[in-house]
Design goal:
Blueprint: E1 7-10, E2 25-29, E3 37-48, H1 49-59, E4 63-69, H2 82-89, E5 93-96, H3 105-112, E6 117-120, E7 128-129, E8 139-140, H4 147-164, H5 169-194, E9 203-206, H6 212-218, E10 221-224, H7 238-250, E11 255-259, H8 265-274, E12 277-282, H9 297-312
Parallel strand pairs: 3-4, 3-5, 5-6, 9-10, 11-12
Antiparallel strand pairs: 1-2, 2-3, 7-8
The structure holds zinc ion.
């Protein structure tokens, strides 16, 4: 009987030309002295860390996930690297948020793997329109801050994985269903903590407008220093800042928050001028580094709501 030590990955070199490099790779593994079993691993790419976490949750060991915009990094201003290009070239599916979040993705995929399957996880969601009055209506991409909307995105992931690996459908269904249960529990625990914050203090001031969906679901009013859903904007004018500072003073906003993806200087300056305090540590558009409280989506959301409730109640 053949025996393998640990896990042997048979990787097809991208340049061999003898097989589709984007096809599922074959992984042979044995445990102890048992006969080897051959199974496929689906290589997928997630545009940013939160999506990568959901893919691992639903895909388990059937998927090998490469995340392009990693923990602590800003997807709005991202510039793909040559290593990202290689990952996309070797992948079978690219998962993205859509709603204008990954503005750099289109031309990048076009140049690295134009025929790759693409899944826009917000496909069935109606994005928030930022300003109904303008002709070119911009959508708010920060859907992950509402766990109820995450359920729809998790189901898109489940459907896509089942279509690629139908023989593992039961496993994907079970993992998705368990995760949906945890999303519902998360939603309830956020509601419980929000209930501790007096209504007139449910006010979030952050660097950029990332909490629109969160605010809609849990009843907060939001303002941001950059005044934009993208962090890819220049600093606000002195006059714009003066209006915001005045508002923070007048409404006696208890705290304003810095974000893990953006430098805190401007927020600290506004807080100092408005006479309020700065709370650091909010995870907005990215997970935290491994080992931090925000290194998974569920952890990130729990950490955020405890920080918010602690600062505003
Ligand atoms: Zn953002």
């Amino acid at each position: 009987m053949k025996r393998y030590v640990g896990l042997v990955l048979l990787l097809l070199a991208g340049s061999c030309g003898c097989s589709d490099p984007a096809g599922p790779i074959t992984q042979e593994k044995t445990t102890g002295g048992k006969a080897s079993e051959t199974e496929e691993v689906l290589r997928v790419v997630a545009t940013f860390s939160v999506l990568g976490d959901w893919l691992r949750e639903i895909g388990g060991d059937a998927v090998e996930v490469t995340t392009l915009v990693g923990p602590g990094s800003d997807a709005h201003t991202y510039e793909p690297t040559p290593a990202d290009g290689a990952a996309v070239a070797e992948s079978s599916v690219v998962f993205e948020v859509g709603l204008g979040f990954e503005s750099w993705l289109e031309s990048f995929v076009e140049s690295s793997h134009p025929s790759v399957a693409r899944v826009v996880v917000t496909r069935k969601l109606k994005g928030r329109v930022l300003d109904e009055s303008v002709e070119h209506q911009e959508l708010d991409p920060h859907v992950w801050h509402d766990p109820a909307l995450v359920i729809s995105m998790v189901q898109e992931i489940e459907t896509a994985l089942i279509s690629k690996m139908p023989h593992r459908a039961d496993e994907f269904r079970l993992r998705a269903s368990n995760y949906v249960t945890r999303l519902k529990e998360l939603d309830q625990s956020i509601k419980d903590l929000v209930a501790l914050i007096p209504e007139d203090r449910r006010r979030l001031v952050t660097t950029h407008d990332t909490f629109g969906y969160f605010a809609e679901r849990y009843g907060f009013r939001v303002s941001s220093i950059l005044g934009s859903v993208s962090s890819e904007v220049s600093d606000p004018s002195a006059a714009e800042l003066a209006v915001l500072i005045d508002e923070i003073r007048r409404e006696r906003v208890a705290a304003i928050f810095t974000e893990n993806i953006l430098s805190p200087e401007l927020t600290q300056q506004v807080a100092a001028e408005a006479g309020t305090r700065v709370v650091t540590g909010l995870y907005t558009d990215a997970l935290g580094p491994p080992g931090s409280s925000g290194d998974t989506y569920l952890g990130m959301m729990e950490s955020n709501i405890s920080l918010i409730a602690e600062a505003l109640r």
